[in-house]
Here is the input.
Amino acid sequence: MKVAVSSNGENLDARLDPRFGRCQFFLIVNPEDMSFEALNNKGAAQGGGAGIQAAQFLASQGVGAVITGNCGPNAVQTLSAAGIELFPDQAGTVKEVVERFKRGNLRPSNEATVDSHFGLNVAARSGCGGGVGGGRGMRRGLAGGRGADYGTGTYAPAGSKRMGGGTQSKGNELEGLKQQADSLNGKMKEVISRINSLENR
Here is the structure.
């Protein structure tokens, strides 16, 4: 069975990207020999339906299971319809989560962990957009005002409820916040660079 892992890098040591539909890459891994293929997630930056497109893409690749962090209801439904098992709420490196999968330590789920369009407006939902560079600077700095909407992490605030009940584990929340901080740092560098470029024109 081929397993797809949402990833922020192109090798097994990359961190799992908690965003399903808007992750940077999917690593398609054969758990038996740990051979893999890194594929760009071409739908990551589209306005809507990223989760559905990602699920359809993985189905076309013959994937039998998906390991990720957060997954919205439309993507969950599409994966289920394609007969793909979903293992959400995971964190760590791609290699670590696949090893957990091989040992049978992951539990499949057919419930969404976030609501629709969560990744699209994550900065506003998580309260991070205004706190870093004033929010407006982010939108001014990136073309089309969309920079604040993408790539800023997808974990909900501490203690927030998942769909289907329960709260995130401390480990998952901590991992998500670390990745969110890394992503925000990267975005701020892009924003500052773009502002400087515009001011020097």
Summary: Strands lie at 2-7, 25-30, 35-40, 63-67, 85-87.
